[in-house]
Amino acid sequence: MRRFTQSLLGQVMLSMAAALLIAQGISAVMLYRAASERRELAIMNAAAFQLLAGARRAERAPSQRGERRGPRRLARPLSPAGEGERRIRLPRNIRYREAGQSPLVPGQARQAERETELADILAAQGVDVEELVVFERPLLDDELVRAAAERRPRLKARADATPHDLLVVGLRQAGSDTWQVARLPLPQRDRAIVRTLAMQTVILFLVLVGLLYFVLRRITRPLDTLAERTRRFGGAGMAEEPLAVSGPQDIRRLIEAHNAMQARIGSMLDEKDVMLGAIGHDLKTPLAALRVRIESVDDEAARAKMADSIEDITNTLDEILSLARIGRTSAAPERTELGALAESVVEEFEDMGRPVTLDTEGRVVAPVHLTWLKRGLRNLITNALRYAGTARVTILREDGHAVLRVDDDGPGIPADRIQDMLEPFTRGEASRNRETGGAGLGLTLARAVAEQHGGALVLANRPEGGLRAEFRIPV
C-alpha cells in the first residue's frame, strides 16, 4: 500500500479521489441546504394558507350551521412530504380554530426566524399582523391532537408509528382580540435526497476514478518499464534490446530518447572495455619481459627492489582493470548464503596464517555476484590486516539489509577523511609502499562492488577504537 501511495499512479489517484469527495461533499451540503430551505418555505406557506383559509371558512360557518354535514375527513397537510410517505391528517377543527388567548404556554420556546418569515408572507397577502407566535411541540403533547387521537385509532396508530412534531401558529390581527390558531404536523425530513446524493457520489467516483485509472495506467506503465530498464542499465551497464515505444506522445519521445542514450552509452562502454583490455595487454607484456630481464642483475638487493616495483605496477594495473569491469556483467545475481561465502574468504586468509575470525548471526541469504562480492570482502579484510594486524568478520541481517561487517583495532580514519578514503588512489598514509599504504584502490573497488548490488559501503570509527567497514546489501 505504501508503495502504491508513493507512485505517480497512486498519488494522482488519491489526489483525484480526495478532490472528488471534497467537491461532492460541498455539493451535497449545498443541495441539502437548498432542500431544507424549500421545505421551510413550503411549511411557512402552508401555515399562512391554513390561517387564511381557516378564517374564510369561519366567516362562512354561521350561514351553514343548520345544514347537515357529511362525515368529516382527515385533510391532507399543506406541507411537503416524500412520495409514499405515511402522512398525518388532522381533523379540520384542529387544523384551524379561533381562541380568546395565545396558544403559547409558559416555558414554550418561540421560533423568531419563522415568525419573521411568516409575518412577511401574511403582510404580502394584506394581513395586518398585530401579534404572531410560532413554536413546535411533539404531536401527541398537544391536548387537542391527543384527544382526537383517542377518538380516532387510525390517527393514533400513525402518530405512534411515525412520530411527528406539530407546528403551532398563533395570529392576532390588528384591532382584534381573537387569536387564530393553526396546527400543522411537520413532515419528517426527506432522507431520499441523502440517499440520492450518496448514490450519485458513488457513481461519479466509480466512473471518474475508473476512467482516470485506465488513462494513468497507459501513462505510468511505460514509465515503470522505462524506470526498471534504466535501473538495470545503471547497475549492470549492459545494453539491452531497445525498449518498445508505447504510451502518449510525450512518453513515446522519452522512450525514444532513452533508447538512443542507452545505445550511445553502451557503445562507449564497449569501447572503454576494449581500450582497457588493450592497455592491460600492452602493459603486462613488457612488464613480464622486464621481470625476466632483471634476473640478469647481479646485485640481489637491487634485483629484489626491481621485482617489487614490477609487482606493484602489475597489481595496481589489475585493480584498475577490475574497477573498470565491475558492473559490466550480463549474469544475473545468485541467491547465496552469505555466511558460507564469507567462510570461504576467511579460510583463504587462515591458510596464509593471517588472524581473521568469522561470526555469523543466523542464516542470511541475498542475491549477489559471487566473484565480485568475494573480491570486495577480500579488500576490506586486507585493508584491516594492513593497518591493524587483525580482522573480525561478522555476517548479520539489519533493517532489511544483509550486512558483511569487518572490524579492526587499528588507528581508524579521521572523521573528515572518511569519504575521501573511498575515492581512487587515496591512501591512509603517504607512502607508496604496498605493505603500508597500498595503491589506494581497495576501498574504491569495494564501494563499486557494494553499489553494483544496489547497496553501499559504510565506513565508521568504532567508539572503542578501530575502523568498521560494512557492505550493506538490500535483501
How would you explain this protein's 3D organization?
It is a multi-pass membrane protein. This is histidine kinase. Residues 217-270 form the HAMP domain. The protein is rod-shaped, with a radius of gyration of 46 Å. The protein has helices spanning 2-6, 8-60, 92-95, 112-124, 143-151, 153-161, 192-236, 249-293, 300-325, 338-351, 370-388, 442-452, and strands spanning 96-99, 129-138, 165-173, 179-186, 334-337, 356-360, 365-368, 391-398, 401-407, 456-461, 467-474. It folds into 3 domains: 9-60 and 74-190; 196-293, no CATH class; 333-474, Histidine kinase-like ATPase, C-terminal domain (Heat Shock Protein 90). Helix 5 (143-151) packs across helix 6 (153-161), helix 10 crosses helix 11 and helix 11 packs antiparallel against helix 12 (442-452). It contains 12 helices and 11 strands. The chain is α+β, with helices and mostly antiparallel strands. The chain has a 5-stranded mixed beta sheet with strand order 6-8-9-11-10. It has a 4-stranded antiparallel beta sheet with strand order 1-4-3-2. It starts with a helix and ends with a strand. The longest helix is centred in the N-terminal third of the chain and has 53 residues, at 8-60. The chain is 53% helix and 15% strand. Strand 3 and strand 4 form a beta hairpin.
